[in-house]
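Late entry, written up from scratch paper. The run itself happened at the end of the previous shift, but nothing got recorded in the book at the time, so transcribing now.
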Amino acid sequence: MDRRLERVSLSIGNKNLDILKKSTVLIIGVGGVGSYAAEALARSGIGKLILVDKDKVDITNLNRQVQATNYTVGKSKVKMMKERIESYSDCIVEVIEEFYSKEINHIFDGVDFVIDAIDTITSKVDIMEYCTRNKVKFVSSMGMANRFDPSKIEYVNLEKTYNDPVAKMCRELVKKRRIRGKIKVVFSSELPLKQTKIVNENGKTRKEKLPPSSMAFVPGTSGLMCASVALKTLIGG
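Output as recorded:
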């Protein structure tokens, strides 16, 4: 047995470790949530990760993203995550430098579990729709910005979320599109803070003018919980 995974085996057993080694997890969005999910799964013995994200590491990512360092600023998030994982694991890492859209739904082919860790509401619901209709196992992370307390993070059905504007918009779209089936999400019941400080007056979007606040332990906890859900699902826990 690979001694790097000795403690994992002690937790879940060799049989389940073998299941993980043969499993592929697709992570869409490798920022504050997705990078922690990728890190946890790679360290837990997942055989293959597919990482999807077109962004480059920004200096403002240094406070909360696993692959963000002074060395990686300006470089591809997915490539830097792949380089990091390969420094300690035999996990196969495939990178796709694209923003998710329905035009690349081929990325779901052959995967055993999907983690949605992106911000765009319509795209999140596109993922929910594809996975529910094609019986692909998945979990979606809701809004984690403008929050401070990681103990408020829960794993529930989308319909049971509250105090979360992202989840509310997702619920409305799911209902409008008549998407059926249980949609499992990780969300925070903490009311988000109101960010009112203008950072870039010339920004073209609200996000550029008023970027959301974020702390490492809130998106990080969501990512770790998503990874835990993926692992438990894969081994039938």
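The radius of gyration is 17 Å.
(Scratch paper discarded after transcription.)
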